[in-house]
Design brief:
Blueprint lengths: L1 H11 L1 H23 L1
Amino acid sequence: MLYRYLIALVQDGALLLICCFFFSEKFIVLYEGAIGF
């Protein structure tokens, strides 16, 4: 069931948006951390 749910997310592009948001947030945190030093 979870597998079908993930497929639905991919088809809707929601999973891609979530991944982009997650990685962009992580990148911002790392970037700010680098500037902090």
